[in-house]
Structure formats: C-alpha cells, structure tokens
C-alpha cells in the first residue's frame, strides 16, 4: 500500500498527498488501493539528463517529441505516412503477418509489423479473431482499462496568481509556475474520497488537479503575456451514474467544478480564461485510441505488469501472429514517455528478422 510507504517516510500530510498523486495518476485507484505503490515507483525510477526521478518539458510541446523521433527515422531512410488509418493486418497462408491494409485500400507489404496501438485495437480490431487463441483473446478482453482521467487544456490571458505565492508586479513567471502544481492534495483522505465518488459513477466534487503551465518555460507556445495551462484531473468515471453519457452539459459542469477549485487557490483564474478544451475518458478513447481513455493502454496494476503484460506468455513483444509485435504502452514495462517498450520490441524484431 502506498499509504503505508508514505507514512513510514514522511509526517507532513500535504507532502504525502502530493507524492501520492504520482501513485494514482492515470489509475482508477486510491492511495489505499493495494499495489498503488508500484505506480509511484514507475514514475520516479527513470532519470532525465543524469538526474534520477526528474521529469522535463518538451520544447515546442509534446508533438515536438514525435517530430524528433520522425526526423531520426527518416534520416535512416524510413518512410512515414501520416493520417493513414490502418484497416487490418495482412496475413499469409500460415497466419503470419505480411503487412497492413490501409482504409483507402492501399496495401503495404512487410515481413514484420510492429503495432504501437493498444493491445485491444491490435488484436481485437486489426486481426480476425479466428486467427488468435481463444484464451489470448479472452485475456485481452479482460484487461482492466478503466481510466479516471479528464484532461482540460486551457488558454489564459495572464499568469495565475496563487494566494500562497502571489505574482510579482512584472507578471513574470516565478519558480513554482515552472513546476507541476498539485491542487486539492492537502491530505491522502481527500484523494481517497475523490476516488470513492468516481467508483459510484459521480465525477469527483473536489478533483485531484495537476496543473502545468508549459508556456512559463517555453514562451513560444502562447502570445506575449498569455499562457497555456494543462490540467490533468481525476477522478471521472467513463460512464456516469445511471448509464448517462458525457454530454456537453456534463462535461462543462465537471470543468466548472475544476475551475472553481483553482479559483479558490488563485483568485481571478476564471476571469483569465480565453478558451478551454475538455477531454473526458470517452473523448480520450475516441480521439487517441486509448482503451477506456486509459493513458497506459491498461491499468498499471501488479496483475497486469511484467510477465502478464499484455498477457501471460506474450510479454516478450511477440504475439500469437508470427511477425506481429506489440511495442506500445500495453507492452512491458508499461506506459510513460520513455520509449522502453519500443526499444525492447525493436531489438526482438531485429533478432527475428535476421532469421527470415
């Protein structure tokens, strides 16, 4: 239990709760949920430029990371086709992968196919079910993909001024504006209460909020004096109580709750908002292909990690389809902006390719 780990090392409840957010981030779990300690470990085990557990912003926004990977690939002769939806994986007579078919009818032939899509999309939508073992299909269908995350992107015309650390008169970003700001985290019990509400189908009345202002470090993301704010919030169930869906009224009502909370910490925030984009779990699934809206392609619980990710006997990036490999967050070691699954999958694929 994460709560026991934090109680062992720390006394301050706000500090424990703030650290606890990285143990429940993206997870439909509370700090009191067994196994939650691993998610915290997952978020601090890496390093950035030699600093253990450090995180960083990508200059130019997260899309710049994708562009950097794309440029590196094309420099080695790769051809990238964007906005080309894959319809299904092409299979040979012996059931081996032979390429992919695009929705426009184009067929791309290849001896190897690596899928960065979720296991659900890869095996339940792109492969005929009769080509896969029944127990494997059942396992993929049973993966826990519940997600508590609603992401809200905000444009503001001035920097928020927090009661705890008011802005300087020149309006320039202060050190805390350049960090991850955690709100509604005064105690782990608050996080547990927010989680409990969502398990009953109700968006949290006092949501956990991680607020980042990337334009404080990267001014090119917004016009002079203006900023972009990224709000990573939870807990919001995929389906609301009574089977209700996330219509515009429900989405705006939840966003208003989030903004009211921020207003309590930084009066004037709501008046500074120019526009907002609300992405609930169903939106994250529809737009980005995240199953259930889960940012990790599946819960990072102990029963879905290591040798069991995405399924027992298939944690080594190979799949029941010869020549088809899984290289995304649904593969070992799971989600996060680190590229470990892709690197490992590529090494396995290269090893197999030499024997074809």
TrEMBL record:
Major subcellular location class: mitochondrion
Domain Amine oxidase: 34-177
This protein's record includes keyword Flavoprotein: yes
Keyword Flavoprotein tagged: yes
Pfam hit, one: Amino_oxidase
Membrane spanning residue stretches: none
Compartments reported by the entry: Mitochondrion matrix
Domain of life: Eukaryota
InterPro entries, per the entry: Amino_oxidase, FAD/NAD-bd_sf
GO cellular component: mitochondrial matrix
Quaternary organization: Interacts with COX5B; this interaction may contribute to localize PYROXD2 to the inner face of the inner mitochondrial membrane.
Protein task: Probable oxidoreductase that may play a role as regulator of mitochondrial function.
Alphabetized PANTHER family for the sequence: PHYTOENE DEHYDROGENASE, PYRIDINE NUCLEOTIDE-DISULFIDE OXIDOREDUCTASE DOMAIN-CONTAINING PROTEIN 2
Similarity annotation: Belongs to the carotenoid/retinoid oxidoreductase family.
Protein name: Pyridine nucleotide-disulfide oxidoreductase domain-containing protein 2
UniProt organism field: Edolisoma coerulescens
């Amino acid at each position: 239990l994460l709560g026991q780990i934090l109680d062992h090392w720390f006394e301050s409840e706000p500090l424990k709760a703030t650290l606890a957010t990285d143990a429940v981030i993206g997870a439909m779990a509370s700090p009191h949920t067994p196994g939650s300690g691993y998610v915290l470990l997952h978020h601090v085990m890496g390093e950035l430029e030699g600093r253990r557990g450090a995180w960083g912003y990508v200059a130019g926004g997260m899309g710049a990371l994708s562009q950097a990977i794309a440029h590196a690939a094309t420099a080695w002769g790769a051809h990238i086709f964007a906005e080309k939806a894959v319809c299904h994986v092409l299979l040979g007579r012996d059931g081996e992968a032979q390429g992919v078919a695009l929705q426009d009818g184009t067929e791309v032939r290849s001896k190897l196919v690596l899928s960065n899509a979720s296991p659900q999309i890869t095996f339940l939508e792109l492969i005929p079910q009769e080509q896969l073992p029944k127990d494997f299909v059942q396992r993929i269908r049973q993966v826990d993909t519940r997600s508590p995350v609603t992401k809200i992107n905000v444009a503001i015309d001035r920097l928020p001024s927090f009661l705890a650390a008011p802005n300087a008169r020149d309006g320039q970003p202060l050190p805390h504006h350049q960090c991850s700001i955690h709100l509604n985290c005064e105690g782990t019990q608050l996080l547990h209460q927010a989680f409990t509400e969502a398990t009953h189908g109700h968006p949290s009345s006092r949501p956990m909020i991680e607020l980042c202002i990337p334009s404080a470090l990267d001014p090119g993301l917004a016009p002079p004096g203006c900023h972009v704010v990224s709000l990573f919030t939870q807990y919001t169930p995929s389906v609301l109580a009574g089977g209700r869906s996330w219509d515009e009224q429900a989405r705006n009502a939840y966003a208003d709750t989030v903004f009211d909370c921020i207003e309590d910490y930084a009066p004037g925030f709501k008046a500074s908002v120019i526009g907002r984009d609300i992405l609930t779990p169903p939106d994250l699934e529809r737009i980005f292909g995240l199953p259930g809206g889960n940012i990790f392609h599946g819960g990072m619980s102990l029963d879905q990690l290591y040798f069991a990710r995405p399924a027992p006997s298939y944690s080594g990036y190979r799949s029941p389809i010869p020549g088809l490999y899984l290289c995304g967050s649904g593969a070992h070691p799971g989600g996060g902006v680190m590229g470990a699954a892709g690197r490992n999958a590529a090494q396995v694929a290269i090893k197999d390719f030499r024997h074809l």
